[in-house]
Amino acid sequence: MQYEGVGEVKLYFCRFPYAKEWRLFLSTDTALSLVKMMKIYTVRWTIEGFFKEMKQHLRLGRCQSRDLDAQSAQVTLRGITYIFLAYLRRVDAYESLGLLFEGILAELREKNVAERWWALFEDRLQAVLRSVAESGPMDLQQFQQSPP
User: Are 27 and 66 part of one and the same domain?
Assistant: First the structure.
């Protein structure tokens, strides 16, 4: 399709499983498939969200210095702060701020859940071993009927 002032464009219509409305995506790269376009869109949207949150919560863009080094330092420090806060949020609340950290989030979730299950298992095992040590030898049926 030709679009005035832009040239050749490709339109993608899709509806996400959780949404009622259809979405329209426009791309100037007419060779892209829908899947490839969605991957690119997802990455770009994550970056947009990153900058939006940095502007809203970390006051990015409010540096009044005219010195380029000071402005670069401000952007760098805000980025480092954002990454640190995103990491802490993910570790504490198992929440993701977007696909930017999806790989790290998956590793942290698996590790934390596995560690928590293992700690629970160890606690239960210690309780069983203490109970057996205190009461002496017993069969499984006696153990199951014993008070906790």
Answer: no
Q: Are 63 and 79 in contact (CB under 8 A)?
A: no
Residue 27 and residue 42 share a domain: no
User: What is the number of domains present in the chain?
Assistant: 2
Q: Which of 15-19, 38-42, 134-138 has the highest mean pLDDT?
A: 38-42
Lowest mean pLDDT among 35-44, 81-90, 112-121, 122-131: 112-121
Residue 105's Cβ-count burial label (10 Å; 0-12, 13-18, 19+) is buried
Rounded to whole angstroms, what are the CA distances from 108 to 87, 104, 121, 122, 139? 9, 6, 20, 21, 40
Q: Which domain holds residue 24?
A: 1-32
Amino acid at 125: L
